[in-house]
Amino acid sequence: MSENSLVTNAVGRTVPTLINNVPSVPFKGVGKHRPTGRKHSIVIPSCADYPEDGNKLVPSLKEALIKAGLKDGMTISTHHHFRNGDLIANQIFDIAAELGVKGLVWAPSASFPCHEPIIGHLESGVVHHIEGSMNGALGRYCSEGKMAGLGVLRSHGGRYQAIQDGELHIDIAVIAAPAADAFGNANGLYGETACGSLGFALADSEYADRVIVVTDNLQPFPCIPWQIQGNNVDYTVVVDKVGIPEKIVSGTTQVTRSPDRLFLAEMTARFCEEAGLIREGFSFQAGAGGTSLSIGIYFAELLKKNGLRSRFARGGSNKYLVEMLEQGLTEYILDGQTFDLEGVRSLRENPNHVVTSPFTSYNYHGKGNFASMIDVVILGATEVDLDFNANVVTHSDGYLLHGIGGWQNCLAAKCVILPLPLFRGRVPVIRDAVTTICGPGEMIDVIVTERGIAINPLRQDLLDAVKHSSLPVKSIEELKTEADRICGKPAQPILGDEIVAAVKWVDGTVIDAVRKVIT
Amino acid sequence: MSENSLVTNAVGRTVPTLINNVPSVPFKGVGKHRPTGRKHSIVIPSCADYPEDGNKLVPSLKEALIKAGLKDGMTISTHHHFRNGDLIANQIFDIAAELGVKGLVWAPSASFPCHEPIIGHLESGVVHHIEGSMNGALGRYCSEGKMAGLGVLRSHGGRYQAIQDGELHIDIAVIAAPAADAFGNANGLYGETACGSLGFALADSEYADRVIVVTDNLQPFPCIPWQIQGNNVDYTVVVDKVGIPEKIVSGTTQVTRSPDRLFLAEMTARFCEEAGLIREGFSFQAGAGGTSLSIGIYFAELLKKNGLRSRFARGGSNKYLVEMLEQGLTEYILDGQTFDLEGVRSLRENPNHVVTSPFTSYNYHGKGNFASMIDVVILGATEVDLDFNANVVTHSDGYLLHGIGGWQNCLAAKCVILPLPLFRGRVPVIRDAVTTICGPGEMIDVIVTERGIAINPLRQDLLDAVKHSSLPVKSIEELKTEADRICGKPAQPILGDEIVAAVKWVDGTVIDAVRKVIT
C-alpha cells in the first residue's frame, strides 16, 4: 500500500485521502458534500460496429473477454443476484490467469463465500484488490492485510453513485443472466437460475466501456422484459450453467423460531404501532433476516387488524411480502432483490410487484431517490455506540466480514429502527465507540433491544409519541450499562495502523477506514 | 441566417457545414461516419438539493420554468405523444413571452397543426427557430424563409442520437404526462389524456439540464410504470388539462376504403408472400396510414391461412395489431407510439405489448438497435427517384410539410417496401431527382405501385425470389416512363438559393438541405 496522508473526518475518524492512488474526499457530514462535474459517460458507439441482425453471440466467455480487450490493470465488474450460487465471477479470473493478465480490480456489487477462490488470484497478482463488499473468507483475508490494494466498501446506492460519477470506472462488466437474447436484452425472471431482478447490474450496463451478457437460457429476440437493455451490450455468451439454483433463491423463506428474535420483532412492531407509524398508506422496508421477516408479519397483522393498507413495501421480497401484496395489505412491492421463489413468481406475474434499481432507490447523486420517502425502515447492525453511530461491516474483533448492502442508503428513511440483541455471545452490541462507523448516529432513530428501547434524543417527536405507552423506553446509556453489567467491559480488538479498506458514504466521501487485525 | 460554407455530400447534395452557427458534418455514406467523443451527460445532481419527501410539486408551469432558470437563448423541448391534442407546448412560449424571454430554440419531437400559434412567437423573436419536424403551417412558414434560424429535421432515432451525443443540448425539457406522481415518475397509460408510451421524451428526461413533468392526473407515489423516471425529474406541475383526448388518440382506427390504396396494400402483401418474407417468426413494421393498416390486415390473414406466427410486430400500435397479438398471430408488439384506444388498453394490460423508445429501436449511436433486425418494413414517401432515393419531408412543389418520424431509422430493416401511388393529383411520384433526399436509395428495396413493382437492382435476391411469380415486376425507369406518359413531364418547384432547413441522417450528418420556396 502506498504512503498516505491521513485526515480526521466529520465523524472523528482518521481516513486516507488517497485510496489505491485515487484522491478521495473525507466525510463532511450528512448532506454536506456537493459533487462537481458531470456524470460519467461512455465513448459514443455506432451501430456500424455491431451486427445488423442483432446477433452478438461469441462462442465463449474467454473470447468475449479477449474481444472486450481484457488487459492488465483493468476493472472487471459482476453482480451478486446469484448470491452464493454464482458460477461466473470465478471463471472470469481463472480466464484472466490463463491469459497471463495481472493487476485486475474486481468490482462486484457484492461477494459471497462461493468467491473464496478469488483469494488464489489475489495471491498470484491476477487480482490486485476488490472494490465491493467482502463477506467471510475474502473479508478475513483483507482484514489480515494480505490484499495488495485497499478494499473499497460501498453501499448499493454508493456503488451506483461511484460508477455514475466516474469514481469507479468499469472497463468490462460481465452480467450473468437467467434469460437473455443474442442482442443482450436480459432479465432475471425466467429460467433455472431465475433470481428476480438484475438491478444491481444496471449501472454496469450503462457505464462500463464493454458489457458482456452471459446466459444459460438464450431466448429468441426479444427477451422481455429487458431489465438489462441489449442496446448497452457488446457481446453475449451462452454457457452451460450460470449459477446453482438452490444457492440463488431459497424455495422457502424461514421465519425465525428463536424466542429472543421473535421478542425483538414483536417489540419493534409494537413500537411502530404505539408511535403511530403504522398508518393508512404508510411505507416500509424490512430486510431479509429472520427478525425482519417476523416484523413484516407483525406489520401485516396490524394492518389487517386495523383495516389499513400500506402504499408500498420495499423489498428484498419474499413470500410474506408477496402474501401482503396478494391480500391487498400493500399496494406495491418496489423490489431491489428477490429472496425466494415466491418473490420471483410474483415479480413475473404481478404488475404491482415492480423491479427497482440502485438508481431509483438509493443513488444519492440523483434528483432524489426512493429511500428518503419510506416511513419505516428496519435494519441490522453489528454494533452501535452511545451517539447512535452504527457499524455493519466489521465485528467487534475488528474483522471485516460483511458488506454494506443498501444499509447506508436506507438510513435516509423517515424512521430508522435497529432491532438488536443487547449482546451476542457475551459481546455487548452497544459500545463507547463502534469499531467502524458505517452510518452517522443522527440518521438512526431507534434501537430496540430485548431489555429496552432507546430513542435518539434528536427525535423528540418519537419520544413524545410513546411517552404514555407501556414500552420500556430507556436511554442508550442505560442499555449499555445494563449490557456491560451482564457481560463485563468488552475487550477491544487489537488493530494495527495499517489501513486495509475504506468505507465510503453514500456521497462518495470516506466515512471510515478499516484497519488490519493483529492476530 | 449567417454566411455559410456549402459542400457537396456523398449523395451529391449541397449542404451547409454550419447550421445555426454549429459546425455540422456532411453525409458521408451509409455507415461511413464514425462518431468521436463521449455521450453527453448532465451535471451530477445531489439528493441534498431535492425534497426528502419526494414532493417536487411547484404551483404552476410558469414557476417551474422560472425555477428551471428559463432565459434568453435556451433550448426547450417537448414531446409529441399528444399529437394534435397537445395543450402544453404553446403555453411554454406564451409564458416565455410574458416573461420577456427571447431567442429560444424549440426542440419538439414533432410539431402539429395545433402548434400554429408558435408562428406568433417566431415573429416576435421569442422563438428563434425550431429543431424538429414542422408539419403544416409551421413547415410552410419555414419554407418561405421566414424563420430566423435554420430548421433542423431529425428522425426519431436521430433526435435521440443528437441529444445523447450532445449535438442537441436541451436546457429545459417539459414532459406532459397523462399520469405522474409528485416525484416525477410518469407514464402515458392512465387518465383522460392517456396516449400509451412516453418514449419520445426519454432522451429529454435523461439528458436535459432541467426536467419538468406536467400532469393533469397526479397519482400518489409510486406512479407505475415509470416510463419517465422521477429520478431524472426536477419539478412537477399539476394543471387542469394537458391535452384534448380526442385529438391525442382516436377511439377507432380506420382502414382505408379507397380502392386504389387497398390495391396497393394487397399488392404489397402479395409481394411479401411471393418473395417468401412471411415466415414463421418473421417481424414487421407498418405505419399508421390507411394503406399500411390494410397491409397489416393482409399479413394477419396470410399468417392465419398458413398457420404461421410473427415473433414481433413493431408499432405504432392500433386495434389491428392488438387483435393480432390477442389472436396469437404475433407474440409481441414492440411499441413506439400508440394510435388508438385499443392500443392504449393493450399496452396497459398485456405484458407482451411492450413500450419501446427511440433508444431501443432507432438510436444509430447505440450498441445496435432494433430497426435493423426487422424483416419487413412498410413506409411511405412523397417522392422517389430513379436511384431509389426517397423524400418524406417536402412535396414536389418544394414545401416542407412533414417530419421524418422513424422513417430514416426504419430503412435499416432487412426489406424496405414503399407502396406508393404512381402519381398524386397528376403529380408523378417517381422523379429524376427527389426534391429532398431523406433516405439513400441503397436502403430502399421495393417500390410497389398500382402499375407495377420496382425492385432495387441491388436486391438480386428479391428479384430472384419473385422471378417466377405473376407479380408485375418492372424497372423503376419503366414505371417512371409510364407515369410521365400519363401526367406529362412534371413542373419543377421554384426554389431560391437560401437554405431554410437541414435534414440530418441517423448518424447526425447532413444528408440534404431544404431551400426557400419562391412564391
UniProtKB/TrEMBL annotation, chains A, B:
GO terms for cellular component: ATP-independent citrate lyase complex; cytoplasm. It comes from the Bacteria. GO terms for biological process: acetyl-CoA metabolic process. Its EC number is 2.8.3.10, 4.1.3.6. The keyword Ribosomal protein does not apply. Its main location: cytoplasm. It holds the Pfam family CitF. It catalyses: citrate + acetyl-CoA = (3S)-citryl-CoA + acetate; citrate = oxaloacetate + acetate. PANTHER family: CITRATE LYASE ALPHA CHAIN. This is Citrate lyase alpha chain.
